[in-house]
Design a protein that fits this description.
It is a single chain. The chain is globular and about 55 Å long. Strand 2 and strand 3 (43-44) form a beta hairpin. Helix content is 36%, strand content 20%. The chain has helices at residues 23-31, 46-52, 57-60, 63-86, 132-138, 154-166, 185-193, 218-233, 256-268, 271-275, 289-298, and strands at residues 3-10, 36-37, 43-44, 91-97, 111-114, 118-121, 148-151, 172-174, 202-207, 240-246, 304-313, 320-328. The longest helix is centred in the N-terminal third of the chain and has 24 residues, at 63-86. The two termini are 17 Å apart. It is an alpha/beta fold. The protein has a single domain (3-328), classed as 3-Layer(aba) Sandwich (Protocatechuate 4,5-dioxygenase, Chain B), CATH 3.40.830.
Length: 329
């Protein structure tokens, strides 16, 4: 019987490819007009966040602290890389989000499974005047030179679509990418940062976490994870399958309370806590917590092997990213 034998939660922020000295440059983007939300999901200005921020955050954006935290994040990425390799997986379901990389206002599916035989990762394409720090930060999602076609576990992908449809989930499907960007950042990150030793065939599952009004609600995400686990168990053969939630945790304003609650609920298998998160708190970058909720639902039969949480502030206003790393076995 096929089964899910590994679950992974992995933040994928551009900060993870940025040295400490580049954090203030990211903060400049926040201060210059980035759309920001407070902890209740309400639109706020950078100045308003700065007024409300805990003064102790200033201690957390000192260079030596940022150096320690960037090193810790890199160590956790390397650990996830090893965990995926050592699990000897036949396939990895990646629950990620698409931010207008392949899907947009002309067609934004709530839940989509890609089932082409391969998926392409293309070199980074940016405007000629893009700052070097931003090129470097984004490069972690892309191959360096020629496009690469990565294998897709397309038979498992098709099986998931059929089975989830029978389980009353309306799943969009795709067999090819139409835009030159190639696979989105949530999936490219896994290929570029978490598969250094061996490439595992993936099933790309894209949730619309970012764009109202058809964002799957937290309860639906948890139920989707449960249904994915059930579908995997009905797949022919004895495939060892992993599932990975790519993205999160809170950003662009760090919400440590939310992040720690999500991690605690994942560890304690608290389906109610994860299913009843106020959707207003899951917008902007924090919306990617939906990917973790889905993985938690799929990993009910597994236990948390380890978790790490690193609040990576980059400004006195509390902007940055709550970095989460987790493994279920």
């Amino acid at each position: 019987m096929a089964d899910i034998v590994l679950g992974v939660g992995a933040s994928h922020s551009p900060l993870l490819n940025s040295p400490a000295e580049d954090y203030p440059k990211h903060a400049e983007i926040d201060a210059s007009g980035r759309k920001l939300l407070d902890k209740h999901g309400r639109a706020v200005s950078y100045g308003e966040l700065l007024e409300r921020a805990d003064p102790s955050i200033r201690e957390q954006i000192k260079h030596e602290v940022l150096e320690q935290r960037t090193a810790a994040c890199t160590a956790n990425i390397n650990r996830l890389d090893r965990e995926i390799h050592e699990a000897n997986l036949d396939a990895l379901v990646i629950v990620g989000d698409d931010q207008n990389e392949q899907y947009g206002d002309d067609n934004m599916p709530a839940i989509l499974i890609y089932r082409g035989k391969t998926i392409v990762n293309n070199p980074l394409m940016m405007a000629e005047d893009a700052p070097e720090f931003w090129r470097h930060a984004r490069s972690q999602y892309h191959v360096k030179s020629e496009p690469i076609e990565y294998p897709v576990a397309h038979e498992l992908a098709s099986h998931l679509i059929d089975t989830l449809m029978d389980d009353e989930f309306d799943i969009a499907q795709s067999t090819r990418l139409t835009k030159a960007h190639g696979e989105g950042h949530a999936f490219g990150y896994v290929h570029q940062r978490l598969m250094s030793a061996k490439v595992v065939p993936i099933v790309p599952l894209a949730l619309n976490t970012y764009f109202p009004p058809n964002q799957p609600r937290p309860r639906r995400c948890y139920e989707l994870g449960q249904a994915i686990a059930k579908a995997v168990r009905s797949f022919r053969g004895n495939a060892r399958v992993g599932i990975l939630g790519s993205g999160g945790l809170s950003h662009f304003a760090v919400d440590e309370e939310l992040d720690r609650m999500v991690l605690d609920a994942c560890r304690n298998k608290d389906a109610i806590a994860l299913s009843t998160i106020d959707p207003a708190r899951l917008n902007s970058g924090s919306s990617e917590i939906r990917n973790w909720i889905t993985v938690a639902g799929a990993c009910e039969r597994l236990d948390t092997a380890w978790q790490e949480y690193i609040p990576c502030y980059r400004s006195a206003a509390g902007t940055g990213c709550g970095m989460g790393f987790a493994v279920w076995r």
